[in-house]
């Protein structure tokens, strides 16, 4: 197999369209193309071999996850109740909030991810309260934009992982050897990729973003770059990113360039004494200006500054939203109601 890229993003064989895509050899990718609000539309994976199954991540709410499970059944004949194992690649809502629909299965995560999820519980109720009690004005409008409809975050709580691992876990799905490999802290405190050597496929989860701005929640960026280095060493033809189109190894370069740019530019401004907000506005995003949700530069500068200072305490979500909302308006990625 010798895939070719479409432009700088994507794999020419699979269009970036909603739904389940057959990658061959019992491997599938469930894609959710980016659209407003540009956060929460993640990709998932499914592996089927000799009647054995693995689901890689659920989605941001149960409605979206149910739609994915219905399509898996329609196209593979495997009903949700027959899925044996689920992997949560990391803690984020768009990879875990549908867990209750597969709670009969063994739900696997790294020990760190499982602890993160338990620490956040009740995650849905807390997020719903945050949205319902949001401040007035642009900040509140932005919170509602990113967490409100089309997402439905109420009336459920995601099931927690039932088994954990650290570092690496090797298992078999039918006759296929499958490897779970942990990285981090990077995107989050723990990020897992899934390698299927016999199929030359890797599900990279949120280690790879394409066309959608990465969010460095944990960092340091150097750890994320090490994960990309590892992906480069794999003998694979197909990479399924956490956000963006199916790609090949050529698709690793844009994420790398973005992260290297952020760390370099943030360090220059940190040395000049600029605030996080000042630095985020001052950085020229260049080729990444057209990526979705460019305002995440503020999250990423904030994380860089924290590591430059040696500060382990992450900035609170309300404070980040207070800073990022006006930047999103300035960058044209968010238009408050009544301002169109």
UniProtKB/TrEMBL annotation:
The record's listing under InterPro entries reads: Metallo-B-lactamas, NDM-1-like, RibonucZ/Hydroxyglut_hydro
Tell me the domain of life.
Bacteria
Q: Which residues form a coiled coil?
A: none
In terms of SUPFAM superfamilies, this protein maps to: Metallo-hydrolase/oxidoreductase
Please cite one Gene Ontology biological process associated with this protein: antibiotic catabolic process
Indicate the family of this protein: Belongs to the metallo-beta-lactamase superfamily. Class-B beta-lactamase family.
* Cited PANTHER family: ACYL-COENZYME A THIOESTERASE MBLAC2, METALLO-BETA-LACTAMASE DOMAIN-CONTAINING
User: Can you name this protein?
Assistant: MBL fold metallo-hydrolase
């Amino acid at each position: 197999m010798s895939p070719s890229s479409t432009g700088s993003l994507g794999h020419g064989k699979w269009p970036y369209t909603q739904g389940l895509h057959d990658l061959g050899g019992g491997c599938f990718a469930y894609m959710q193309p980016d659209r407003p609000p540009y956060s929460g539309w993640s990709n998932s994976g499914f592996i089927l071999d000799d009647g054995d199954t693995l689901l890689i991540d659920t989605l941001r709410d149960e409605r979206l996850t149910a739609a994915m499970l219905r399509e898996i059944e329609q196209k593979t004949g495997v009903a949700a109740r027959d899925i044996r194992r689920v992997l949560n690649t990391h803690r984020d809502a768009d990879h875990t909030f549908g867990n209750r629909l597969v709670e009969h299965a063994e739900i696997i995560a790294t020990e760190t991810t499982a602890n993160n999820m338990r620490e956040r519980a009740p995650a849905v109720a807390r997020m719903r309260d945050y949205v319902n009690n949001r401040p007035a004005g642009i900040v509140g409008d932005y919170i509602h934009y990113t967490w409100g409809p089309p997402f439905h975050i109420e009336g459920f709580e995601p099931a927690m992982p039932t088994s954990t691992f650290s570092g690496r876990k090797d298992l078999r799905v039918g006759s296929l050897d499958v490897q779970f490999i942990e990285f981090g802290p990077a995107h989050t405190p723990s990020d897992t990729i899934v390698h299927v050597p016999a199929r030359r496929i890797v599900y990279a989860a949120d280690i790879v973003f394409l066309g959608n701005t990465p969010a460095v929640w944990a960092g340091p960026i150097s750890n994320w770059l090490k994960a990309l280095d590892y992906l480069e060493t794999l003998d694979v033809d197909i990479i399924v990113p956490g956000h963006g189109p199916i790609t090949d190894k050529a698709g690793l370069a844009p994420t790398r360039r973005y992260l290297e740019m952020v760390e370099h530019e943030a360090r220059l401004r940190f040395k000049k004494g600029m605030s996080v907000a000042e630095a985020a506005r001052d950085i020229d995003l260049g080729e990444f200006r057209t990526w979705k949700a460019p305002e995440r530069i503020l999250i990423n500068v904030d994380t860089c500054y924290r590591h430059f200072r040696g500060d382990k305490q992450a900035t609170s979500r309300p404070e980040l939203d207070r800073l990022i909302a006006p930047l999103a308006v300035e960058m044209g990625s968010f238009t408050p109601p009544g301002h169109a």
